[in-house]
Amino acid sequence: MILAELISAFRDLGITRGENVLTHSSLKSIGDVEGGAATVVAALREAVGPEGTAMFPAHTWGRNQNPDNPPAFDARASRSVVGLVSETARTTPGGIRSLSPTHSVVAFGEQAEWLCGAHHLADTPCGVDSPYDRLCLVGAKILLLGCDHESNTSLHMVEELANLPYHMIPGFAEYTITDIDGHPVQVRARFHAWGTPRFFNRVEPMLIACGAQIHGKIGNATARLIDSARMRDLVLEKLAEDPNYLIVA
To answer: CA quadruple 56, 134, 122, 113: dihedral positive or negative?
Structure first.
């Protein structure tokens, strides 16, 4: 695929100018893309236009991170661990990277600064005032491009809003990270607990039935486009009924 074909495919899927879209992706699932990951990033930015916001995860989490072993996060140099498209977005000029030592995002466009600006102040990595939470306040979409809900970080946001007991390691780490200008920033960070198996794909039939998720094709990849606020509200309702709704029985 070339740039123009990708832009057209994103528009056909339902992404319009002025929208705010967070994309999780698998480049190899799309097939042959001229220019590779950089073309995917450019196509998504063009699809939403300068009046919209294109967002990408730039996560730096690791299983060995905890309050006693916090990561050394530098917004200028800490590489994304969640794929080539996200890492390419991280190094693309013009983006704003949020300051989370584990779950940062990179955003381009109209609302990038507001969406990312308070991430280092959030009580949990994906909770209130994180970009994942603020996306819901601006009618944003989540695009799962060649991946499924197992890659949907915003479901961790819902877990954190619901204060589920299995999700977070108790306690905070207070330490210094480095912002994009090389300045030190003090953070009070919490960390995800590992070991509880999730079943995030359980949400898909409900989202489709309610019209909160649509499907399409981008090259060879299945694309899922999800209304972030509707997903949050629907899953919160399920978690109020059953706190174990998102984990493997």
So the answer is: positive
> Could you read off the pLDDT of 125-164 as tens digits, one per residue?
999 999 999 999 999 999 999 999 999 999 999 999 999 9
Q: What is the pTM of this model?
A: 0.96
- The pLDDT tens digits for 160-209 are 999 999 999 999 999 999 999 999 999 999 999 999 999 999 999 999 99
218 Cα distance to chain centroid: 19
Distance CA 203, CA 208 (A): 9
pLDDT digits (tens, 9 = 90+) for 89-106: 999 999 999 999 999 999
Q: Which of helix, strand or coil describes residue 110?
A: coil
Q: How many CA atoms lie within 13 A of 239 on its CB side?
A: 22
Distance CA 162, CA 237 (A): 10
> Of 189, 130, 202, 193, which is closest to residue 165 (Cα–Cα)?
193
Asked if 40 contacts 142 with a C-beta cutoff of 8 angstroms, the reply is no
Domain ranges of the chain: 3-241
DSSP state of 36: T
CB 75 within 8 A of CB 104: yes
CA distance 37 to 145: 12
Q: Which residues contact 79 (CB under 8 A, 6 or more apart)?
A: 60, 87, 90
Contacts of 22 (CB under 8 A, 6+ apart): 55, 56, 57, 105, 131, 132, 135, 140, 141, 142, 143, 154, 228
DSSP code for 155: H
